[in-house]
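User: Study the shape:
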Amino acid sequence: MINKPHSVQFTSSRIEDLMFRTTFDPVAMAGDVIINLSLIKEEDLESILDVYALAIRSGLSVSPFLKIIKAGESIGDFRISEGDVGIATVCSITIDGVLLKGGVMINPKLGGVVQIKNGHPVRFTDVVTYVSTTIDPLEVLMSQDVTSVSQMLRTGSGKILANLREAPLVARDDIDHILSDLLDAGISGIMEVGEPNSRVLDVPVERDHLGVVVIGGTNPMAMAKEQGFEVRTNAMSTLIDIDEMKHVDDFV
């Protein structure tokens, strides 16, 4: 018998599926959010939580909410192996899901590395579009050791992970309103909202659209890897109820 081959799913298709399944309501502070899952060694948990806390408190993440998954427990389709611990953090695509639910035709376009100089974003230096890969772009770039998140925190200059989405310029007021609600709910990470029909961080956007750049939810993982920890990242892993997560201050 010939086994049926697995179909290839590009990241853009997976993002669309997760966006439609996002139910998070920032006003009610309830519903499902998309999460990134980090798999680490159990003995590294305390040290890595310190790294994550520093990144989160420095604004280099989407949300301060985490979930710890112990060995033998499952989250989505992932079961945590003996000797490992999972850390779930909020994925930036959650923002796109909330915008979509709010009536904004948002189009996640690419993930990349943004150069920061003296605390200000300058430009994307490396990008991977969602339609061109079956692996999350930020996972790809993180594996290439092209970030310098730790250096950026020390000096104000370095390279961090971020992603870009496009939206119709007529939706600008709706975008501002929804992003404000998300900020009140602790979901942030907006790096830049571009002007209509203008390049954003040196990346062009479509006519009659504007670009929105969000800090990558995987920056804490990148920072931990830079410091020598083994971190296996599964970006956009699954969705979980926000009520299952706790504030980073409850852990560190």
Notes: The helical segments are 11-21, 45-57, 93-101, 137-143, 149-155, 172-184, 219-226. The radius of gyration is 17 Å. The longest strand covers residues 107-117. The domain at 11-91+219-250 is CATH 3.30.70.1360 (Alpha-Beta Plaits).
